[in-house]
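Help needed: design a sequence for this.
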């Protein structure tokens, strides 16, 4: 029975990976020359695809007693509130500098094509609350590391970083794991 369940889970994971890969659009030279942008909007525009992604992520976090899903600007805002709703958790927006209306904490970081600063409200989570970081993909890992730093400064317990896609060639997932952040992604690209 256990072997059958493991086979079924592996088949489901393979089906999800294949489905995701077939629905990702690659946009060359965006947002700047030399960058191959992995666009998830075709994946999200199909109701069955969106349901597939949300169900897979909900299954991952169902039994982890997550207090908040922190959505990383901007595409993490699409998934994190859906997960929060499905699992009875809260949503934390992790925004680019200057976008939040209340007092914030800030953290600068490097991107694969520049530098940026993230902010979070000073009351986004309480000490000891369990938080999962959510984004569309992991590239260099800078955004997720900055978000983790912010939430840990507030006393949050960051359980994991979750995303639809890992771009392992850019080194972000290795960098995040080396920094002690567990990761869960639905597929590599």
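Sure. Designed sequence:
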């Amino acid at each position: 029975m256990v072997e059958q369940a493991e086979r079924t889970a592996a088949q489901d994971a393979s089906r999800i990976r294949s489905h995701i890969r077939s629905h990702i659009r690659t946009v060359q030279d965006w947002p700047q020359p030399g960058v191959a942008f992995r666009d998830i909007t075709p994946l999200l525009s199909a109701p069955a695809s969106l349901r597939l992604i949300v169900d897979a992520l909900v299954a991952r976090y169902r039994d982890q007693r997550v207090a908040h899903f922190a959505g990383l600007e901007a595409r993490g805002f699409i998934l994190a509130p859906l997960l929060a709703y499905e699992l009875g958790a809260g949503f934390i927006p992790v925004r680019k500098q200057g976008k939040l209306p209340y007092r914030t904490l800030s953290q600068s970081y490097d991107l694969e094509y520049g530098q940026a600063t993230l902010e979070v409200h000073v009351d986004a989570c309480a000490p000891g609350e369990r938080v999962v970081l959510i984004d569309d993909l992991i590239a260099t890992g800078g955004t997720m590391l900055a978000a983790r730093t912010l939430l840990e400064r507030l006393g949050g317990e960051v359980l994991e970083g979750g995303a639809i896609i890992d771009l392992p060639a850019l080194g972000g997932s290795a960098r995040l794991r080396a920094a002690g952040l567990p990761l869960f992604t639905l597929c590599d690209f």
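The domain at 2-188 is CATH 3.40.50.2020 (Rossmann fold).
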